[in-house]
Amino acid sequence: MMYEEEDLSKITEVRPLIIQNDHFTFGNVEAWMNILASYALVHPEHKVTLYYDGLPIHNLISLYKRIGSLDITKFEMQVAMPDREKKNLSKLRRLLMEGASSNFGPFINKERNRVLMLF
Asked: Domain extents for the chain?
């Protein structure tokens, strides 16, 4: 989805995603994909950008190739949105951190072709 610059008048600061899981796995990436899909369903006008080591992650699937060599302290998040819509930002951050934990199971157990209703 393409965003026009004037559509996104508010950009949050880049905030670290605090991950307390030494074994970041494929399941964590899948959980993130499902969490972000759920957020996008409720807030389609928002643009969520995840960063790794200061660089934007354009495709979460690309993390699969780096699973063994990821430094979990280098993940960050930023959201661009219309000025009036700040709802669910802290919940999104909290769910992303939980999805990156060893407790990612609830975020990957869903019906096929369905989006989790988290927001």
From this structure: 17-101
Written as six digits, the tokens of 85 are 């819509």
Q: 46: exposed, middle or buried (C-beta count within 10 Å: 0-12, 13-18, 19+)?
A: buried
Query: Cβ–Cβ contacts within 10 Å for residue 81, how many?
Result: 21
| Alpha-carbon span 7 to 29, nearest angstrom | 29
pLDDT tens, position by position, 38-75 = 999 999 999 999 999 999 999 998 887 777 778 888 99
CA angle 32, 37, 43 (to 5 degrees): 120
Phi-psi category of 113—alpha, beta or left, where left has phi over 0 and alpha has psi -120 to 50? left
Residue 26 CB partners (closer than 8 Å, separation 6+): 64, 67
